[in-house]
Amino acid sequence: MASFLFLSVLFSFLRFTSSIPSIGIAYSSTVSPPPPPLPAKVSSLISTLKITSVRLPDPDPSLIKAFAPTNTSLFLSISNSHLPALASNGSVALSWLRRHVLPFYPRSKISLISVGNTVLDSTTIQDFSPFLLPATRNLHHALQELGINKIQISATFSFFSTITTAFPPSSAVFQQPAGDLIIKPLLQFLEQTNSSFLINIYPYNLFRLNSEIPIGFALFQDNLFNFRDDPVTGIRYFNLFAMMADAVLTAMAAMGYQNIPVVVAETGWPSGGSQAEEVEANGVYAEMYLKGLVRHLKSGAATPFEVRSCNTIEERWIMVEGTMKEGGNGVF
């Protein structure tokens, strides 16, 4: 299995406005060397580095509280194991919010909560997908009951367990039966609540499955042959990330939800692999991917789908996941 160096890239595909992305990080105390640094030290260092956006995959209340004196925008995640309880009883949702949100908000600038992560992936014994929409609704209703209406509630999906194909992007649709049973009702909920659709995109996985994809195309390298044309639309793509992002937007449009903001919650390239044939899973390529992605986003270039639909990217947060250890693969 490959060991990934992650980025989280949050997009909002909205009309008529655009902005340069801000740089942020995804921080988890569970990946820090024991003992983890004090929450106050984490928030202070992040603030000193002028990082304005942080994703907390395992949000500890003390860490959320530590960001109160800062202007950092927080993206919280709820683990899949909590979904059955959240779905079965609205009081559980209220209890979670009273522990993780109510004591700190709005001083701690919580802007987004993901209910579950890649629940459609068949890598666990228990299937959490039936609990996803009820849990999401209960959490939203609990926020309303508490008088909080500026925090988005959504769920995070994996590209490979959600989208049928990345090429051609114009032919992409959501996989069935999950598309109609889970994705479509969730998209309806997101539209009603003005929330974002969250998805993880890993070009490395698609590169590994298709030997015809040039490595430079996957790593944002400028080369005469680093492009692919959509045979249906004739649109030319110059990197794999944009092609996969367009596939997601196309699948949403096919269901009639092309105006919902999209968040690429995670992306990255593996810095190592456990299998001998994973020669492209290395630190050099991981660094090339991350630098290329940041360069691509800062250029303000729209994906071909955005151009065709007259949409532009209204806001982008780029969050790098790292550890609080000098000399490691993280940002600190």
UniProtKB/TrEMBL annotation:
EC number: 3.2.1.39
Coiled coil: none
Signal peptide: 1-19
Name of this chain's protein: glucan endo-1,3-beta-D-glucosidase
Family: Belongs to the glycosyl hydrolase 17 family.
UniProt entry keywords in alphabetical sequence: Glycosidase, Hydrolase, Signal
GO BP terms, alphabetized: carbohydrate metabolic process
Family annotation (Gene3D superfamilies): Glycosidases
One Pfam family matching this protein: Glyco_hydro_17
GO terms for MF: glucan endo-1,3-beta-D-glucosidase activity
Enzyme class: hydrolase
Keyword Lipid biosynthesis belongs to the record: no
Hydrolase in keyword set: yes
Family annotation (InterPro entries): GH, Glyco_hydro_17, Glyco_hydro_17_plant
Reaction catalyzed: Hydrolysis of (1->3)-beta-D-glucosidic linkages in (1->3)-beta-D-glucans
